[in-house]
Amino acid sequence: MKNSDVALGILAGLAVGTVLGVLFAPAKGSETRKKIAEKGSDLKNLITDSSSQLEEKLTQTMESLKPETQNVWDGLLQNNNDEKPNFDHLVEINRVK
Q1: CB-hemisphere CA count at 13 Å for 12?
Q2: How far, in Å, are 19, 41, 53 from residue 31 at the CA level?
Q3: What is the rounded distance in angstroms from the CA atom of residue 58 to the CA atom of residue 47?
Q4: What is the Cα–Cα distance from 52 to 48, expressed in whole angstroms?
């Protein structure tokens, strides 16, 4: 299972649990609405923090992959340069016919 799926499941469970807990707790309507607003704010902060952490992790991953992708790209360019004379030779052979 992907980390993002686990995080999304945890957030959804927290949201559902919070709403159900607040709705079934014996309290006045105004108190309940206030609690729901507070929990919504807490959930918003949790999501913001989680998304910031995810963004940071993605940035680190991309930065760590840059040298590797550069090496692959350099290898492709070198391979292209190595094979160009063979390609040019094949083009000449086919022109003669």
Answers
A1: 6
A2: 13, 15, 33
A3: 16
A4: 6
Which of 43, 2, 46 lies closest to 22, judged by CA? 43
Asked whether 32 and 23 are in contact (CB, 8 A), the reply is: yes
Closest to 7 in 3D by CA, of 39, 40, 42, 51: 51
User: For residue 64, which of 76, 53, 52, 56 has the smallest C-alpha distance?
Assistant: 56
- Per-residue pLDDT reduced to its tens digit, 24-61: 777 677 887 888 788 888 888 888 888 888 899 999 98
Half-sphere exposure of 84 (CA within 13 A, CB side): 7
Write down the residue that tokens 């927290």 correspond to: 14
Q: Are 15 and 43 in contact (CB under 8 A)?
A: yes
Write down the pTM of the prediction: 0.44
